[in-house]
TrEMBL record:
Protein name per its UniProtKB record: Cystatin domain-containing protein
Keyword rRNA-binding included in the entry's annotation: no
SUPFAM superfamilies attached to this UniProt entry: Cystatin/monellin
Signal peptide as annotated in the record: 1-22
Residues in Cystatin domain copies: 22-118
PANTHER family: CYSTEINE PROTEINASE INHIBITOR 5
GO molecular function: cysteine-type endopeptidase inhibitor activity
Keywords from the named record: Protease inhibitor, Signal, Thiol protease inhibitor
Amino acid sequence: MRPITILVAIASVAIVLQAAEAVTGGWQPIKNLKDKHVREIAEFAVITYDSGLGPRIEPLKLVSVDGGETQIVEGTNYKLLVTATPANESVAAGGDMYQAIVYESLSNVKKLVSFIPWD
Ligand SMILES: *[C@@H]1O[C@H](CO)[C@@H](O)[C@H](O)[C@H]1NC(C)=O
């Protein structure tokens, strides 16, 4: 097979797998938590959460993404466990864990569904 044919074959398999997931609608663990897009989703969650805070509350900054699952639903739901710390405190202080749920539509519009302390 020529390389282009192989690529098309791989893409077709990926589409079939996604379609299968769409039917089941189950949560799938995110294999690569360092993925750039996963990090973007986590940053979006923290920034959006911060934008809803009162002026006297120190905003959070993202430290790390520690766990996550996705669910295919006419788009994707991301359920992430993140560590975040108040922006005026050093990362060395440790930070706290939060569970963030973000919905991303098929046209990549993100919406923060929930952001709650996690322990
Ligand atoms: C960070 O800011 C909050 C709220 O403004 C304040 O209560 C807290 O003492 C500050 N922490 C540090 C390490 O400056």
